From TrEMBL:
Domain named NADP-dependent oxidoreductase: residues: 16-315
Source organism, top-level taxon: Bacteria
Native species: Nemorincola caseinilytica
Protein name per its UniProtKB record: Aldo/keto reductase
Entry-linked PANTHER family: D-THREO-ALDOSE 1-DEHYDROGENASE, NADP-DEPENDENT OXIDOREDUCTASE DOMAIN-CONTAINING PROTEIN
Pfam families: Aldo_ket_red
Origin organism lineage: Bacteria, Pseudomonadati, Bacteroidota, Chitinophagia, Chitinophagales
Amino acid sequence: MTKETRLSLQGTIAGRIGFGCWQLAGAYASANGRPNGYGDIDEAEGIRAIHYALDNGINFFDTAIGYNDGHSERVLGKALVSYTGSAGVRPVICTKYEGWPGMEGLQDFAADMERNVDMSLQRLGMKSLDMLLLHNPPDDLDLSAMDLAPFERMVAAGKIKEYGVSCRTVKGVANVLEHGFGSVVEAVYNVLDRRYEPFFAHEAYARYTFICRVPLASGFVSPRTLAEDRVFAGNDIRSNFSSEQVEWVTGAVRSLAFLNELEGGITVSALRFQLSNPYRTIAIPGIKNVRQAADAALAMRLGPLPQDVVQRIADAVPEVFYKWR
């Protein structure tokens, strides 16, 4: 199998490096008052970044209802409506619904999910979603008891094409695949955490598309981390990270400094790593400006890393942070 940079999804071609839209949600807080976004954004610059991505072969967009109460979807919708580039560009949209059967306070899962999908379509200005994912349900959610009828009704109505789960951890991924739920699964996968990888090649899961989130380790895989200790604003979710985690991640990134010697530097190289397997994976770096979109486009143009570099990454970072296990 060749290492293609594009995938066929329900007859639509999508680039294997996409556009993560969490950053477009701006600054907001979770229910407990802690920051849950990536700080302030320039919405106009975010829209320019989306247009740049579309002009340069990046057409897969991952967003969620929970990203600031749909604000990320609104920004993406504005960008898609105002795009005047190539008429042949077809955006591929994945969004996520914040609910599951048995969730506390949720009386009617099916009705609530369908209502939220309708609202997402309105915010996005779309008639159909390519993918709908349950957003971070419990890792041990009993998927064998899941009623598929609400999902299949939306497929039949043309509101969604595929469905699946965005998982909290690798244990959640195993649960989804064990029960054969849906055809899409999303989880963390990057140069510092490669535990998701064994699922890609498993022939029993060949029908799944694997979405790889935080491919830049929440922005830590960056020349800035090589040069200085990172400090984040109080409205940035990364300000919640423990000093122990930040110290480990910083050290791990610095052990990969050799990637900065390649064209585009460490950020582009880490995105090229995502293309270095031949499987049905799509990486979704968080993007909020044209510079970040340009890095993703350059990674697509350069293609996979040489295999000896991939092995060097594995040798440099053989284990994940112990609290992620």
